[in-house]
Design goal:
By secondary structure, this protein is of the alpha/beta class. About 35% of the residues lie in helices and about 25% in strands. It has eight helices and eight strands; from the N terminus they run ααβαβαβαβαβααβββ. The radius of gyration is 17 Å and the shape is globular.
Length: about 240
Amino acid sequence: MTSTIDPAEVAKFSAIAAQWWDPTGKFAPLHKFNPVRLGFIREQAAAHFGREARSLKPFEGLSLLDIGCGGGLLSEPMARLGFAVTGADASERNIGTARAHAAQSGLEIDYRATTAEALVEEGRGFDVVLNMEVVEHVADVGAYLAACTALVKPGGMTLVATMNKTLKSLALAKIGAEYVLGWLPRGTHDWNRFIPPAELKDLLEQSGLTILKTQGVSFDPLRWDWKLSNDVDVNYMVVAARL
């Protein structure tokens, strides 16, 4: 399988890899977003696998791949919930940051500077594959998702988070976030790479998965925080399973 990574995108995030765990740095929006997506992942996985979501380590005995893991903002809490976590990222610098922070936190996480395609060639499989805010940064979305979904075990599930391709997302997620409010470094996203939910779900279904849920996520300016919503015009998450 050929690699679907975009070297320019890898270089972009490698350049700021040291800032992953700074809640006031370049990744501040992700730190703000994290509680909402963590809660959603926990609830969806618990429902799918019949686990008690509020128990201390509800996912012991299950494996999880965090593809495009960056500095480990999702990998670490998933490990604390009991998953055997593999964190994969195409950037060596991101993986270095993730490994160092996990060591400081006393967490055992299998971090690898690798790609989804390479993991498929190794014959790997996981109960859960997290694919959060990655598809808009790859060179070939269809080939990338085909590789990622091949890593989902029978009975397993995947969660994909990305941004819709609408005028609203152009105004808010691109122009507003990068150029007006300065929440993200300019050039973080290319609106032309955003993907509508229908297209994303079609690609997942072509890979043999069944769509379980589509969930919108919106920024609440009154609370200055993120919340789950019915609005998928900008940010959204899709849950799918290999039944």
